């Protein structure tokens, strides 16, 4: 794996390999040190989980992080994304983690000689979120084939929905969507259902954040009405299978996508997803650096 920009580029074998390495990191069975490797994290959109867990992953791998803030960089003088990245490559950065509001921004970066890890592009892809979600599901069920997954909410604007739909379908899960008409995405061919018609047969209820920043205006949005129609209420939670789980990429709009008391309920895996994200990002980085600098990885656990 030379870089990671989209789940579409990953085979199922690569997905399993990334998850297995992440689980080994989590269990303390694998330790890699990349001491002489430099990384820059370029976040052109806000982030807490993705940015901080990449930073944690990089430090735990012993990498050197080159601080980069868009607000104090020459991006503010009009420097393009490509020239910014080429500059970082020129001064010796080995890998870039990038979040950007523009879909497919990474296509402009094909002239780079260093890997790009996509931390989210507009409503396009969020591959490390998808992988950490898949890792969380795998830890729960040890399989994907035949699992019923309901992805619920702002499908049209969600890079998480797109990434997870593609990957989970490829792994053999049955993915369905529930969404208000205005947030239906016709480019994805999963069936749309009503949450109340499928809640009792669903193994994984994956709620999506309402992406207010990607909506035009939206003066009519009523959070209470949304919660009642599309959110995880206590009544719906109680109708879920005993071993079913609730996921959400977060940040959570409490009381909108999910009742606030359910965020840490027994079936909820929301904070476990965040914990897994750090190990999963360690796995992604180490796989990519191993490909880039063959032989540099020293597995100091063995
Ligand atoms: N889930 C996720 O991407 O969260 P952040 O926007 O905080 O990184």
Automatic annotation (TrEMBL):
Its EC number is 2.1.3.2. Residues 2-139 form the Aspartate/ornithine carbamoyltransferase carbamoyl-P binding domain. Pathway: Pyrimidine metabolism; UMP biosynthesis via de novo pathway; (S)-dihydroorotate from bicarbonate: step 2/3. Carbamoyl phosphate binds at residues 49-50, 99, 126, 129, 250-251. Pfam families: OTCace, OTCace_N. It catalyses: carbamoyl phosphate + L-aspartate = N-carbamoyl-L-aspartate + phosphate + H(+). Gene3D superfamilies: Aspartate/ornithine carbamoyltransferase. It comes from the Bacteria. The keyword Transferase applies. L-aspartate binds at residues 77, 159, 209. Keywords: Pyrimidine biosynthesis, Transferase. Residues 145-287 form the Aspartate/ornithine carbamoyltransferase Asp/Orn-binding domain. Catalyzes the condensation of carbamoyl phosphate and aspartate to form carbamoyl aspartate and inorganic phosphate, the committed step in the de novo pyrimidine nucleotide biosynthesis pathway. PANTHER family: ASPARTATE CARBAMOYLTRANSFERASE, ORNITHINE CARBAMOYLTRANSFERASE, MITOCHONDRIAL. Heterododecamer (2C3:3R2) of six catalytic PyrB chains organized as two trimers (C3), and six regulatory PyrI chains organized as three dimers (R2). Belongs to the aspartate/ornithine carbamoyltransferase superfamily. ATCase family. This is Aspartate carbamoyltransferase. It comes from Staphylococcus simulans UMC-CNS-990. The lineage of its organism: Bacteria, Bacillati, Bacillota, Bacilli, Bacillales.
